[in-house]
Amino acid sequence: MEAPWFMSIKKNPQAEGKRLLMDAALTLTSNNRSLSSLSLRELSREAGLNPNTFYRHFKDFDDLGLTIIAELTDQIRQPLRDLRREAAASVLPLHAVDVSWEENPQLNMKRFMQVNKATIKLFFDFVASNPNAFIVGVRELHGASKVMRHALRNMMSAFAQDMAEDVEMLNLLPGLDKGPLLALSEVISRDTFLLSMDYIELPDQRDNICLQAENLVATLFIGSTVIGGQGALVVGAFED
């Protein structure tokens, strides 16, 4: 069995240096700084390393930022997809015969709501565990580095693509074509990413922020099914 990445870092001095530089960058930029504003000397001092160590691991500061984004994406992307399947299966096992929206709209709406709630919670739990990374990410989304802006947009698009594919594959909503489904997922991916700042800075309001995100997702997706001509099924899902 392959060792987790954090175990590999502990055993590999070169990887440990890379980790120290990444952690130092997140610490320094979490307080109203951008990656491009850092100097090599202050980053190395924060990491406790010789400045020359930086270029053993990164080409430049953009490369450092891209590595941080890639690592965060790798840590949360697949767990979100796995959780959608688990949450859907908790209401109706995936190996069971599909129950169509026409047959049982209430059951299918329950599946959608369960997936929505579970994935929102997982995302914000991840935000709480990695606050500095999200602070930097939100800031760099509108920062000076075109490379970072492009990478962050690509990251959100990747999450949106996953979401759209899973909603379709799990039949979480009726009557949404791929184009509108992906467009909605793009909006949701971006808005929840931006909400991460509120979640970090307003710890006493975290339950409300999660509920706000859940309502955003439900309103956009369910509203679009109504616009798409599936209003009767949606209304039926909320009837006793």
Written overview of the protein:
There is one protein chain. With 240 residues, the chain is an all-alpha fold. It has two domains: 11-58, Orthogonal Bundle (Arc Repressor Mutant, subunit A), CATH 1.10.10; 61-237, Orthogonal Bundle (Tetracycline Repressor, domain 2). The chain has ten helices and no strands. The protein has helices at residues 5-11, 13-29, 40-47, 54-57, 61-91, 105-129, 131-140, 146-169, 178-201, 206-237. α1 packs across α2 and α9 runs antiparallel to α10. The longest helix has 32 residues, at 206-237. The relative contact order is 0.11.
What's the quick description here?
The protein is mostly helical. It has helices at residues 5-11, 13-29, 40-47, 54-57, 61-91, 105-129, 131-140, 146-169, 178-201, 206-237. The relative contact order is 0.11.
Main pleated-sheet profile: none
Oligomer: single chain
End-to-end C-alpha gap = 49 Å
Q: Determine the CATH topology of the largest domain.
A: Tetracycline Repressor, domain 2
DSSP helix count? 10
Give the amount of beta strand, in percent. Answer: under 5%
Helix and strand element order: HHHHHHHHHH
What is the general shape? elongated
Assign the CATH architecture of the largest domain.
Orthogonal Bundle
**CATH class division of the largest domain:** Mainly Alpha
Q: What is the CATH superfamily classification of the largest domain?
A: Tetracycline Repressor, domain 2
- Count of DSSP strands: 0
Q: Kindly give the count of domains.
A: 2
Q: Rounded to an integer, what's the Rg over CA atoms?
A: 21 Å
Helix content: over 70%
Helix vs. strand class: mainly alpha
Task: Average the pLDDT over all residues and give the rounded result.
Answer: 88
The unreliable regions are: 1-14
